[in-house]
Structure formats: C-alpha cells, structure tokens
Amino acid sequence: MFSLLLVIIYITFISLGLPDSLLGSAWPVMQTDLNVPLSYAGIVTIIITVGTIISSLLSNQLTQRFKPGLVTASSVLMTAIALMGFSFSNSFLALCFWAIPYGLGAGAVDAALNNYVALNYASRHMNWLHCFWGVGATVSPHIMSYFLTNKLGWQSGYRAIGFIQIVLAVILIVTLPIWQQKNEIVGSIHEPANDKVQKAKSWSELFQIKGLKLMLVTFFAYCGLELTTGLWATTYLVQYRLVPENIAARFGSLFFVGITIGRFLCGFIADRFGDKVLIRWGICLLASGTVLIGIPFKTDNLALFGLIIIGLGCAPVYPAIIHATPSYFGKKNSQAIIGIQMACAYLGSTIVPPIFGVLASSLTIGLFPAYLFLFALLMFATSERLNKLHDKPEKGNQ
Hints:
The protein is an all-alpha fold and 398 residues long. 82% of the residues lie in helices and 0% in strands.
C-alpha cells in the first residue's frame, strides 16, 4: 500500500511541474490572440505568485484541519479547474480571474506534499521527487508546442494539461485512506503520545526558533539564484560573451537539464552523505560554476560548461533544505515552516531576477556571474551558520 502511495506522490510531483512552464511557452501566441502587450504576462505571473505565497503561508492551518492527503487532492483539483478556466478564456481579464485559484492551489499542495515527504520518506526520495518535478516542467512546453504546431490553439494545450490534472485529482481522492493509514503508522512509531496534542506555534513563535531566519535567507537566496540563472543566462551569453544565439539557447536549457539529472544522481547518495553535506557541496559546486562563466577567456567553452555546473550544484540544495527541516526544527513545526519556506522561495523567485534586470539595463549584463556568486556566498554563509547552531547527527530514514 505504501509503495502505491509513493508511486502516486511521484506522479503528483510530475503534475506539479506541468503548469509551471505553460505560460512562458504559450504567451507569445496568447498575447497576440488576446491583443495585449507582451509585458502583460508579468501581471498574470504576479497574481499567481501572490496566490501561491498566501496559500503556502496558510498550508499549516489547512493541513492540520484537513490532513495532507485531502489538501493535496483539493489543491490539485483547484489547479485543474484553473487550467480548464484558462483553456476557455477569451480575454485577459478572464486569465487574471483564473490565475487566482491557479496560485492558491499551487502553494498549498507544494508545501503540504513537501512536508509529507520530509516526514515520511528518506532523503533520496526527496531528490528523486524533485527530479520528477523537472520532468513535468520539461514535458509541458512540448505538449503546448504540439497543439500550437498543429494549429489547435493554446486553449487546447491548457485543456490537455487540465484533463491530466483532473485525472490525478480523482486518483488522489480515491487513495485518501492510504494517506491516513501511513500517517497513523508513522505517528505511532515516531511521535510521543503527548506530542500529538502539542499546540501549534504561532508565526511570531516560529520566527523565534533558533536558526529559522538563517534557513529562510538560504532558501530565498537559492531560489533567486536559480531563477536568475534560468532567466538571464542565455541573454548574458549572447550579449556579453557574443555566443551565437542557437548555441547559447541550447546551453541555457542545459542548466535545467543539469538540475534534473543532478537530482536523479543525488538520490543515490543522499542517504549516505546526509542533507547538510549535500547542501554544502551543492553550494560550492554552483559557486564554482559562476566563476567559470565569468572567467574572461577568449574561448566560451568554460562559460558554457559553467552553466551545466551551476545546474548540477543547484540540484541537491532545494530538496535537501526541505528534507532537513523536520530534523532542524521538529516535526510539529515542519509544516508551518515549510509553508514559510515556500513563500520565501516564490518571493525570491519574483524579486531577485528583476533586480538583476534593472542592474543589467542600468550598468552592464556583464555583472551576471558576480551577481550569482554574491547569492551563492550568501547561501553558504547562512547555511553554514545554521549547521553550527544545529550541530548534531542527522536522523536516518524515517
């Protein structure tokens, strides 16, 4: 039964990645059909992000009241309805309306599912699950491309992904008893009886926990670095390093391939080395990648290779931080804290890349590697400080 649940969770992580890259791949056609400026994609993205941050912060209350399985199923269903709403939209205002449940569904399921896996499964599964998220994010543009190439319209692409999400929501609803059974067994083994009735901490109490602010800064910096790399790497290669556009685009995409492959490989070593080691060496690896893309050699091979290195370095950091959360801050606090982490992740993803865009426009895009290295340095400093505060052996598989 638990193996079946794990398979369902893997499939759910693929579904989490499916909607994330749809808007970017479809927007050039969507903005023409809807007769709006190209920049309006930012408005839709902001609405989705705000909804995601709100639901991430509320995930602890939702999960305590309705349990992880029901929150996951309901959130996937809400996202599916929003995707179907997109597919029937004929105006920009309609897109903005459906972006609200789109974001609210995404944040709650992300926080609930990540905490559930952190509590109930080994570190290797967290890495492989986030690898599967990368599979979903990689596949969905190809699905959209199929419908656009065959002149079936972007609405049909959204509808196809919406149907996939509906099917998954039905599967999640049918399997709700398995989630509950898993919770009861894990709880009876790992939690003291009086811990079950412990009152949940308020946000002000959570922020007083030793080391929490350090972890949140690490998470903010990581997500900002990852999204900045994904958004600006190709432009940096073309405009500053004068790399041909086709080569730059290919290696820019290999950054995401590096993350996906890196998480798959990290799954084999995660339980042996532990979350702290994965975070430390991941940050060191991605920092070395930022140095490689900034070395002013005539050849561009090092810069192109550096992008892959950054992707491989990024791979273990996000899953390892989430998986380490219960051991750092306690199982009773982990759902609320992971919800705050998700909010910080989306905040970093929203703020950090545009700030670099302003710097690139005002000064030079040549600051790209230095900007990335600054965030890598911040991540290393805060994560190492956190390790010193919680300098105790990590627990094994849960």
